[in-house]
Amino acid sequence: MSYYNNRRTEPLPSEDVATWECVAQDCNGWMRKDFATKDAPPCPFCGSEMKTGTRHITALKNNNLHK
Ligand SMILES: [Zn+2]
């Protein structure tokens, strides 16, 4: 059962996605534009402005997102 569990090297699918990135240097807040409800939303964590950006992230099929 655990024979090949230690070395799972199969590549996960990933993609470039458009994001909003928090401008505060001490905040890692960001969100996918897909999930933003309006243009240039405030950071959900600290309320600062968000700037547009992109991230190359794993295309997750579940809701295991970083909070
Ligand atoms: Zn923030």
Automatic annotation (TrEMBL):
Name of the protein described by the UniProt record: Cold-shock protein
Record Pfam families: YdjO
Organism: Bacillus kandeliae
